[in-house]
Amino acid sequence: MAQNPFDQLSKQYLEEFLAPLGTVQRQYEIPGEAKFVDVWFVPNSKRVQSSDLGLLGRMVQKSCLLEPYRNTPTRTEIRVAVMKLVWIQEDERRKAQQEALPEDELPMLWILATTTSRPLLEEAGCMIKADWVPGIYFVPSIFKTAIVAIDQLPETEETLWLRVLGRDGTQERAIREVLALPPAHPRRNGILRLLANWKVRIDLSELQDFSDREAVMALSEAFLEWERQHEAQVEQRVRQEAEQQMRQHEARIEQRVRQETEQRVRQETEQRVRQETEQRVRQETEQQIKREMALKLLSQGLPLEVVAQTTEFSIEQLQRLQDTL
What is the pTM (predicted TM-score) of this model? Predict the structure, then answer.
């Protein structure tokens, strides 16, 4: 199957929405056949369906094949898509090891057509259902197939995510609706990223497919908006990392200053204590020496006046020492 920008966008786009809800396989190969399904989706029964998917969310509540078409699908393409569905249904039956699966357990085929033709819809026996929005055409129920004419969908919030896969004016208006969403919208940035990537992949020869210049301009706006947001996110990240590094640097400086201050205070305290201790010990030692000298001189019977001059003790101190002899 030839790959083109729309083909790649449509598959990536659907995967962006459906991956959180179940198993998505792009280019799913039909077992035993040289055929591929664009998107094969199996919902996870344990996960709650997202309410913001609108019509797309309603379509994928059960296992289904999704086949997007950039141009009006031909009769052959419709037949091949239905044939893929039958092969998938048969493979699911074999996996379940049953003679037949209940009708409500059979996978559904959704043909996503940017536009379609009235003769084709009539030949396929398509019908509309009152409980579905206009633009959804159901093939007779035995085929478990529906054709979504994207250009006929009402332009409401419910259909926005499908209309982005449209073309020309339909797609242009849908892209502008995406651009108008609040910056904090959970889907906005992801869709802009995909649209920006799609624009990058389009070369001059492929631009011929865009008959409406407005669609190209809207796509360019989506690219510029995504680029602006990307640059803003990069700038914010750089600023946050710079602030974090500055805080870490300041913390290291503060810690170093605190450590150096504590060390200096400790050293000064130790030095002061050592000096005071040395001085006290020196004074006590000198006092002890003079005391012993005074006692020796007093024991030799020298007058108190002479001993006082020699030892620098007062007469009263010498008298008290003399009493200890």
Answer: 0.63
